[in-house]
Amino acid sequence: MSAGHHITVPFASWEGIAALIGALGLGGVLTALAQRPSQRAVNATAAKDEATGEAAVIASIASAFTGTTASLREEIERMQDTLNEFRQRVAEAEAEVRAAVAREADQARLVADLRAQLDISHADVVRLRTERDAALASVTQKEGEVRQLKAVIDAHARVAT
What we know:
Elements: H1 14-35, H2 39-160
């Protein structure tokens, strides 16, 4: 066969059509194989898509976590303000209680002093009643003596007359 020798098959014959279809089919298969992505490329694309999806989920979770953290920070600050207010109220209440205890102690001392004075006054009243009763008894006795002396004087005056 020489280099200038060509295959001459008319395209109008069934052999020509078969050859043409075969060539086109083979070319299509080869083109499809050449254009078909490799399994490695498909896996890499799937892994990239999965990683992109996971990254989006992680970014979404991080965003939600950031929002939640900010909300929690605000709530913690609010609770700390409330706690500080309660601490201030407790300190004020403790000061009021200490002042009330001091007033109560002062009043207890005052009541004790007044009771001591009352006991002294009661003892004085009892003593004075006893002295009064003794004085009344003495007066009654003296009145009796005076009546006896008057009777003796009257009897002397009658005898002398």
